Amino acid sequence: MTCGATKVYETTISEQDEKLNAVWYAIGTKRELKDMNIVDGKKVLQSGNAVMSYFTKADMRNLTTIETHEKSAKLLTSHPEGSYKLQRDSNKKYVLTIVDAEKFWSRTKYLVIQVR
């Protein structure tokens, strides 16, 4: 392979790797999530009008904890039991700890957490 072809190959692999491991999460109040069309009644991400810029993009291999900074939090998206822990920290604020990333993100690449 020539030097130029190697660089193109490496860039392609890197871009594919980033896409495969990309996940998105959003944290908001019921009102915020509704205003961003992320939640519609009891449906999450069912409308094609969700404001995707409200989500934070991350690499699932590096995302192990998400601090909600709130005393009330619940996951609105479906993630397998045992793949995460949603617990209070020393300040009584909820922190999501992902204990098995592959399992956690197996159903969806999106995470929506509702806080109060």
Q: What features would you describe in this structure?
A:
With 116 residues, the protein is an alpha+beta fold. It has three helices and nine strands, in the order αβαβββββββαβ. 24% of the residues lie in helices and 33% in strands. The strands form three sheets. The protein has a four-stranded mixed β-sheet with strand order 4-1-9-6. A three-stranded antiparallel β-sheet has the order 5-8-7, with no helix packed on it. A hairpin with a 5-residue loop joins β7 and β8. The longest helix has 18 residues. The radius of gyration is 17 Å and the shape is globular. It starts with a helix and ends with a strand.
Name some characteristics of this structure.
single chain, 116 residues, alpha+beta, four-stranded mixed beta sheet, 3 helices, 33% strand
What composes the largest sheet? 4 strands, mixed
Termini separation (Å)? Answer: 56 Å
Instruction: Give the % helix.
Output: 10-25%
> What is the strand content?
25-35%
Question: Biggest sheet, strands in spatial order?
Answer: 4-1-9-6
- Using only C-alpha atoms, the radius of gyration works out to 17 Å
Q: Give the overall shape, derived from the CA principal axes.
A: globular
| H and E order | HEHEEEEEEEHE
Average pLDDT: 93
Q: What is the number of strand segments?
A: 9
Low-confidence stretches: none
Continuous helix count = 3
Would you tell me the structural class of the helices and strands?
alpha+beta
